Amino acid sequence: MVERETWATRAGFILAAIGSAVGLGNIWRFPFQTATNGGSAFLLVYLVAVLVIGIPALLGEFVIGRRSNINAIEAFNKLGRPQWAFIGAIGVIGSFWTLSYYSVVGGWVIRFVYGFGSGVVLDAPQEYFGSVAAGPEAAALHALFMLITVTIVALGIEDGIELATKFMVPSIVVLLLGLAVYAFTLPGAGAGYEFYLSPDFAAVSNNAMTVVPAAAGQALFSLSVGFSVMITYASYLGKDDSLTADGLTIAVSNTFVGVLAGLVVIPLLFAAGIGIGDGGLVSGGGGAGAVFVGVTTALADLPGVAAQVVGVVFFGTVLVAALSSSISLLEAVVSYLVDNYRLSRAPTAAGLGTVIFLLGVPSALDTAWLTWFDGIGVSLFLPVAVFLVVLFVGWILGAEAVDELRQGTSGGSTLPMVWLWGLRTVVLLAILAVLALNFYDLFL
Ligand code: PHE
Ligand code: NA
Questions:
Q1: Where are the transmembrane segments (predicted)?
Q2: Angle at the Cα of 329 (from 56 to 399), degrees rounded to 5?
Q3: Under 8 Å between Cβ of 42 and 34
Q4: How many CB atoms lie within 10 A of CB 136?
Q5: 26 CB near ligand 1 (under 6 Å)
């Protein structure tokens, strides 16, 4: 039997996991969500959600993955709890589901990279977005994005995902830093920082019933928990890592990139006099086209070539971020078939890529479908899956989870015990509250 792959280095695992976390969520959704829901007051709620639910759940997934060293469904069998394997299955289905529309947005990003390359996108950004977002061309670019994703995953853990993310993640950070510095030099950027970061507590408290679960949902989506991805990535680990240290590195990096993306996008919009929210260009704030139309309109202000260069760099960065996440979504599904049915990786990745592509076709033909898939994924699948993971690790694995978390560290058991009891109580209740609010919003 062929031996199961592992990450070549610890840094390789960390970068792959950061690559998964940092994605469209950070750039396409987070900045607008923050800016339109109370600025730094929203950020505060988001950070609390990362700390209280996100990080503990992330460590829980790491524990399941590393302890079993097998795909996210089989993991539960290997841990001697086969009746809980449905949790892994829900996550894998969530990955399948999410990738179908994530890839459509990835296709838009490709379209904007070459729209900026040729310059046509600058003439009428709103119309341009309208004409490329849905239709046969969007479906074709969705196919192209999926093809790139499949190619990387087909190459395997070490020669595909690890190698690719080793280049991708540093590029994302460097390019975003460059763009943030550039945005800083624009006259009028100051108003953007103020809008982005000044706390508007009323905006949060007046709509707490929707803003709080939205912040929590975004925090979980952003950390890539719930969809079996982090279980899968950790299953390729050896015992000599501190899961806690790695988890913190990943969570901090992901939040940093989200905030940084806002420091690019928001000042850019304000420098161009566009503004956000009521009366601004993207009033309502978080629509699927917001970042595309907003950033492009802002750049159209610059003299020709500068606009094109900055546009290609910006959307090129978004593309890299999207790909380093899409490969993790596909890997969660691929690893199950490869491990359990001994299928070879490349044809499995290609076959699954095709099926997921087909599931995404409605989203590529009509953005209303995309919004629906995204809504169900983030407000239903995600909190349900995270709730089950937390329940399982806290109450079913229990002491075994603590033991696994301590492997590879020299620390005592105080912190791991705090984590365990946190999972069993506060984390579980918090995620339950989020779930209840989402249910209420969706169905009542
Ligand atoms: N974390 C990614 C983002 O913010 C999306 C993602 C979710 C990727 C779940 C993998 C698993 O864009
Ligand atoms: Na993210």
A1: 7-28, 40-64, 84-104, 139-157, 169-191, 211-236, 248-274, 312-338, 350-373, 380-398, 418-440
A2: 30
A3: yes
A4: 9
A5: yes
Please tell me the distance from the alpha carbon of residue 141 to that of residue 303, in angstroms, as a whole number.
29
What sign does the CA torsion over 48, 50, 55, 57 have? Answer: positive
Question: Is 329 a pocket residue for ligand 1 (Cβ < 6 Å)?
Answer: yes
d(CA 296, CA 311) in angstroms, rounded, equals 7
CA dist 404 and 71 (Å) reads 17
Residue 320 region, left (φ>0) first, then alpha (ψ -120 to 50), else beta?
alpha
Pinpoint the alpha helices (H) of 235-303.
243-271, 290-299
The CA 20 to ligand 1 mean position distance, Å, reads 6
Which secondary structure element, helix H or strand E, spans residue 278, and what is its range? none
Ligand 2 centre to CA of 22 (Å) is 4
Distance between CA atoms of residues 213 and 204, nearest Å: 11
Query: Average pLDDT over the chain, rounded to whole?
Result: 92
DSSP class per residue in 158-204: IIIIIHHHHHHHHHHHHHHHHHHHHHHTSTTHHHHHHHHHS--HHHH
The closest of 409, 328, 337 to 157, measured between CA atoms, is 328
Contact 325, 22 (CB under 8 A): yes
Q: Which has the closest alpha carbon to 30: 221, 240, 244, 303?
A: 221
The predicted-structure confidence for 213-228, as pLDDT tens digits, reads as follows 999 999 999 999 999 9
What is the model's pTM?
0.95
Question: If we measure between CA atoms, which residue out of 127, 102, 142 comes closest to residue 330?
Answer: 102
Instruction: DSSP letter for 2, please.
Output: P
Is the distance from the beta carbon of residue 25 to the nearest atom of ligand 1 less than 6 Å?
yes
**Which pLDDT score is estimated for 258?**
92
Q: Is the ipTM of this complex over 0.90?
A: yes
Class (C level, CATH) for 10-443: mainly alpha
